[in-house]
Amino acid sequence: MKKIAVLGAGLTGASAAASLVRQGHQVTVFDKGRAAGGRMSSKRTEQGYLDMGAQYFTARSDVFTQQVKQWLEAGLVELWRCKTALLSDDEGVISLTASEDKQQRFIGIPSMQSPVSALLQGIPLLTSCRIHKLDYQQQCWTLYAEDGQHYAGFDAVLVTVPPVQAQQLMTQSGLANIFDSVTDLLEPCWAVAVQAQSIPYGDAIFCQHPQLRFISHQQHKTGRSSCYILHFNAQFSALHLDEPAEFWFERSSQILRQELQVKGDIKTLVAHRWLYASQKDQMAPPGILAMPAQQLWAAGDWSYGGRVENAYLAGLQLAQAVHEYSDHTEAMR
Ligand SMILES: Cc1cc2nc3c(=O)[nH]c(=O)nc-3n(C[C@H](O)[C@H](O)[C@H](O)COP(=O)(O)OP(=O)(O)OC[C@H]3O[C@@H](n4cnc5c(N)ncnc54)[C@H](O)[C@@H]3O)c2cc1C
């Protein structure tokens, strides 16, 4: 049995931790956020949850399909019965058309982080705990948190935080920078929640638009506040990265009124900036990064192409890497 620290309680960290515990290891998970979930977090309001990050997930691999089946049976996820549509901009002419497809899309209930929390059930999780330095001495890792606490005696560390944050951690720790080539992998996204009259088509509106990439209506999602979530595309989000919430409220209201012909009151609720949201299509995913001799392993959704499913698979791959390396070193003795 090894004592293992997992940095990050998103789906990658949760999937790795659950798998390692099943293998008999002693695992502690650390996250800087107030709860588990990472980019699958939903914001709690009196009217219900707002999914500010991932809106849904798909299951393509056999392994993840099996896991989703278990979550469905346990009532942790449901099929999102959404109508899909396409918002396109043809040289300034905006059109919204229904575009039904056969893709099954799943959501966590009552919030996106439900399956993440379920994986972490019974596993020690320290939240509001930002790890800012790692130290490796005599085959043991010590983790230093920003609040002055430290956690010692780990045989292995799994890093599942986004690459830029991982690189900062390695620099602060004086460790080799294994993340140098992957810091450009994740792009930003501003997400805005608004209450507005219904848009004619669609709960899941894919956007080929100069500013937006996705609009989601929460009305058919159990446990959610019935509102719209607008996701601005990476290019527009990056261009206006430091604009305040008011800028994003104004932009959202204008698009809804002028381009989608929404009438009546528009109530802006929340604007959230994701610095590292989703994968750049153009870049090849790198797989797991590692310092095997020190037992430091790193992966995330970005290791296998982004998205929720790849985060889950990355977690399993991390657990497998620890396992195989332990077997290998045992055999060498
Ligand atoms: C706006 C948006 C929309 C999306 N839409 C979809 C979608 O519709 N479908 C889909 O499949 N995917 C979608 N995604 C992507 C999906 O959310 C991610 O692929 C997945 O959640 C990534 O999980 P992860 O565990 O790899 O990373 P994360 O969820 O980012 O987890 C990393 C964790 O590390 C923690 N952390 C960071 N630094 C530290 C530190 N120093 N110390 C301690 N903890 C730290 C963070 O708090 C975080 O909880 C979307 C993402 C965003 C942001």
From TrEMBL:
Output the superkingdom of the source species: Bacteria
A Pfam family per the record = NAD_binding_8
Q: What is this protein called?
A: FAD-dependent oxidoreductase
Lineage runs:
Bacteria, Pseudomonadati, Pseudomonadota, Gammaproteobacteria, Chromatiales
